[in-house]
Amino acid sequence: MSKELIRTVDLKKYFKTGGGTLHAVDGVDLVIREGRTLGVVGESGCGKSTLGRTILQIHRPTSGQVFYEGKDITKIGRRELAGYRRKMQIIFQDPYSSLNPRMSVQELIAEPLIINKILPRQEIYAEVERLMDLTGLAKRLAGAYPHELDGGRRQRIGIARALSLNPKFIVCDEPVSALDVSIQAQILNLLMDLQQEMGLAYLFITHDLSVVKHISDEIVVMYLGMCIEQTSASELFREPLHPYTRALLDSIPLPDPAMRRKKIRAIKGEISNPIDPKPGCRFAPRCPMATERCFSRTPELREIREGHFVACHEV
Ligand code: ADP
Fold this sequence. Notes:
Helices cover about 35% and strands about 25% of the residues. It has about 325 residues and is α/β, with parallel strands linked by helices. The strands form two sheets. It has an eight-stranded mixed beta sheet with strand order 6-7-8-3-9-10-12-11, with helices on both faces. α4 (about 105-115) crosses α5 (about 120-135). Adenosine-5'-diphosphate (ADP) binds next to β1, β2 and α1.
């Protein structure tokens, strides 16, 4: 097994809102290994982005720890953090909104190299060319502007910018959700090729389980700030145990008849806000299997079988 790169311990990020305290991330423990992908899935609003940003220290956590190669980066000052931030990058869902529309492709890719003083000026454009090649951007696009490009090419710029600082870890925050299905596959393949070549570790965030299936080694399923199921990607698709995960899997086509038999009713109702949550399973109000204790006691994440963790009283 490869070396541990990132570890979170009881990580929490709360936001104060007019209505109370919103528990966006509420006690997440996870490990990301070098060169591996941890997929994070769950409905919109369940805290996936906040988790990614809190690991990167874009948001400072309310409590808990984030270790990078064994070093707790939640307590370090700005200057020391800057060094770690370079090794940990982020790719966004909508590269268009994160790219300056007045900058050309080559300027956009050069920008992080210039800001971080990575290379002497005369070497920057050779490096930009290398990064364009690495991410599948044709040389002729060097002078193009973001609005002239399709979503896939814009995402390739986002990836080139993230790679320019030679990171070891990238948070991929819904990187293909805004793209056409055919282009989604190209970008996923690119991310997997880059991982192989450069030994990158990914935290791959998506609301779409079918997207994480092939790219992930391990998957964490989140519900309202909490991790409710965690195991290897193959085990999760073969034997989903939490009623929420099973409902999520129900919404994608299943080729395997054994899995079809286990179908449970699709979940009803809207996801709520985890504002000042009471004890009890947060999924209970929508769960077809919920019993009395589900509404009064929060289920702990338990190892039900080797390497397969589930937070459910009824499993
Ligand atoms: P996801 O990525 O799963 O869609 P988010 O992490 O974006 O979920 O959001 C989780 C919850 O935290 C949501 O209820 C969202 O409204 C809330 N939230 C996210 N960022 C902030 C913020 N800066 N201030 C207040 N609430 C926030």
